[in-house]
Amino acid sequence: MDDALNRRLNELALRAAHTRRVCFSRFLEPSAPDAARAVASRAGAKVAFWGGYEDAERRMAAFYAANVPEIDEWPIAALRIQWNAKFAHPGHRDLLGAVMGLGIERETTGDIAMGTYRGAECAYLFATSEMSDYIAASLDGAGRASVKVTVADEAPVLSPPEGEEMRLTVQNERLDAVLAAACRLSRSEAQRLIAAGLVKLNHAPNLRADARLAEGDLISARGYGRVKVESLEGQSRRGRQIVRVFWYGK
Fold it and tell me: Which burial class, exposed, middle or buried, applies to 168 when counting CB atoms under 10 A from its CB (0-12, 13-18, 19+)?
């Protein structure tokens, strides 16, 4: 994380601790929450994260004092992006490219998630409330598709992620063991990927094949997709670790 963002998070944490008011960041990169937790601890504040829906990767941080009640409202808007499916099917890359083409800062937008509205396919862009009207008025195309953008008043209906749930049995919950089993590699192939810097753990590069995994951890391997550790389910009768994961594919 760069120094400017670290200073900004520290400023928000200190302000929240001293004023007893909730202070929100913009959307953070997936690897930033650990740094936000660290600055909150140093400032004597607490921090929570939300990206507009469960399992969002890009999330805001909300710094608050210990006596502040649970945060009910976040400055996040869900923008519904619709198109005519008879003529085009814009993908995630098309949509993100179109949004970034508006000249706005990446920190003002969170995830783009596919969903449905009144039975038709659509996408939802999560953005800061202050940018929502501008994006809705300015975004009119993505890839080859003409799009219509509106601020959703109701909770978005998101499509389940594409991929496969797996129940693995591995020697232990090491990174190389789970990566090999989930991506159908040999243990040595998984270790080579890790040593080459092609594997990230919770969005940060990880060179340790023996890193122990916990529930909720996210592994991404270049060329092999992503794997989320859903649960560690104890040992099998043969003494192997049972791990339930979700593989998101390439």
Answer: buried
Tokens describing residue 64: 């608050």
The dihedral region occupied by 172, where left means phi > 0, alpha psi between -120 and 50, and beta the remainder, is beta
Domain holding 28, by residue range, is 3-64
Q: Do 36 and 17 sit in the same domain of this protein?
A: yes
Count the domains in the chain.
Answer: 3
In a domain, 71, yes or no: no
Interaxial angle between packed helices 3-19 and 33-43, expressed in degrees from 0 to 180 and rounded to the nearest 10: 40
Q: Mean pLDDT by 10-residue block, N- to C-terminus, for the chain (250 residues)? A: 88 94 96 93 95 94 85 94 94 95 97 95 97 98 96 93 93 96 96 97 94 95 94 94 90
- pTM, rounded to two decimals: 0.84
Residues 124, 151: Cα–Cα separation, whole Å: 9
Distances (CA, A) of 86 to 14, 29, 78, 120: 52, 35, 24, 11
**CB burial readout 81-94, b (16+ within 10 A) else e:** bbbeeeeeebeeeb
Q: Are residues 84 and 60 in the same domain?
A: no
